[in-house]
Design goal:
This protein is 85% helix and 0% strand. The protein is mainly alpha-helical. The protein is elongated, with a radius of gyration of 28 Å.
C-alpha cells in the first residue's frame, strides 16, 4: 500500500468516525441510540469482568499445579534410585 493510499484510507476512516460521533452526540435520534445502548454496554462490561475473574482463577490453579509439580520433583530427587521408595 502506498503512502498516498494510507493517507486516503486514514482520512476516510477519520471522516466516518467523526460523522458517527457527531450523529450520536448532536442529534435527538443519536441520543436515543446511545440511551438504548447503555444497558447493553453495562452488561458487556459485567461479562468482561466475570471473564477476567475466571482467567485469574485459572491462573491461580495453574500456579498451584506447578507448585505441586515442583514439590513432587523435589521429593522425588531425594531418592537416588530413580524415585522408587521401596
Amino acid at each position: 500500500m502506498t503512502q498516498q493510499a494510507r493517507v486516503c484510507a486514514g482520512a476516510a476512516v477519520g471522516s466516518l468516525v467523526g460523522a458517527a460521533v457527531a450523529y450520536l452526540f448532536f442529534t435527538d435520534h443519536g441520543r436515543g441510540v446511545r440511551d438504548s445502548l447503555e444497558p447493553t454496554v453495562d452488561d458487556l462490561m459485567g461479562e468482561f469482568q466475570r471473564f477476567r475473574r475466571t482467567i485469574e482463577k485459572v491462573g491461580e490453579m495453574a500456579n498451584d499445579g506447578l507448585r505441586a509439580f515442583h514439590e513432587f520433583q523435589s521429593a522425588r530427587a531425594q531418592y537416588p534410585d530413580g524415585g522408587i521408595s521401596h
